[in-house]
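Blackboard transcription, Thursday session:
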Amino acid sequence: MQISVTVNGTTHESDVEPRTLLVHYVRENLGLTGTNVGCDTSSCGACTLHLNGEAVKSCTVLAVQADGQDVATIESLAVDGVLHPMQQAFMENHGLQCGFCTPGMVMACIGLLNENPDPTEAEVRYGLEGNLCRCTGYHNIVKSVLAAAATANAVSAS
Amino acid sequence: MIPAAFDYVRAGSAEEAISLVGEYGEDAKLLAGGHSLLPLMKLRLAQPSVLIDIGRITDLSYIRDAGDHIAIGALTRHMDVETSSVLAEHVPLLASAASYVGDSQVRHRGTIGGSIAHADPASDLPATTLALGATYVVQGPNGTREIAAKDFYIGFLESALEADEMITEIRVPKMGGAGWNFQKFNRRAQDWAIVGVAAWRNGTSAGVGLVNMGSTPILATQVAEAIAAGASIEDAAELAVADAEPQADLNASVEYRGHLAKTLVRRALTASTQ
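(Written on the board underneath:)
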């Protein structure tokens, strides 16, 4: 089936089987391998990317469902080598260990702050319940999100 | 995991979807948010030959005050149910239950109509709408009909919905200031409930729905009748299993499920009685 999907600002015309999962489409058709396949059962959140600005698990979305829609992956964040503020916050707060969950985690965290720019720690933990970190590095991930929120709110207040 | 091959068509309206189901027959399945159907297809537990995507029928995504009840379009996503100010005011139990479904990514895609049509006894919204005395509006080739939630659930993943019908609206009576509470007992935040309870109470009127306590979502009728007859919460909660048929699985034995149901019903009714 012919689809047209805008991924990271570029519109791609592709011919895909209807059963192609969105995560396989971005990884294999477009070569954007930053989005990981983890559990493949919509539990772990490693495959999280943004569909029309919202965090979704791309192992449970068909590429044909993204036809005509806007997709953003982890590759869209850093511009000219300058990290996105959320990536910067993860780096400064040791928000990653092995790094496997990180792309999905970062995309989920950005989605979380888009919906709730000034979350409490409890709200961050609730908002991230769909993302598993097998290194169990949750404490510093939560710290990273709170730091990114504080930085963004300080910038918007000044 | 990749689903078995299928053909994909997109419907622009409920009428078109129903006509496509008529055209493709029983091997066709409706695809809404896909968060119940696609996992089953990836495990090859479901192998429809055609998927009819109804996910873009935007005029079936709404939450409206309809006087004595709130009308919710079948394609309203869990996230929109969770954050609705209309539901927060008039049916807060449903908004709260929606916040327990899966996780935020799942709630961005999954829909209330899809969850109800899937009729999973372990899902949160079927049992909650049952407790609230909801009515489901379904559309078929010969028009629409209403099915009371208590008549809808027939067996495991089996409902009164005919193969050529789709749910278009969920009508939930306003709670009128009743106390309410949702209890979900699970091992990890995003898991299905091992046992869940949706409860409301307004004086001697009460409604209690049980999640994962049988092959269908369960209405704990005898608990509500005991409250109506003036029983204490403790005594009413002892009847939590009376209408249920809990089954054992990896997470819980039949006895443990019964214990959880009584405990969670007691907690939910206590929290509903303020």
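Lecturer's comment: The interface with chain B takes residues 1, 17-21, 24, 40-43, 45, 48, 51, 54-57, 60-62, 64-65, 108, 111-112, 126-127, 129-131 of chain A (CB under 8 Å).
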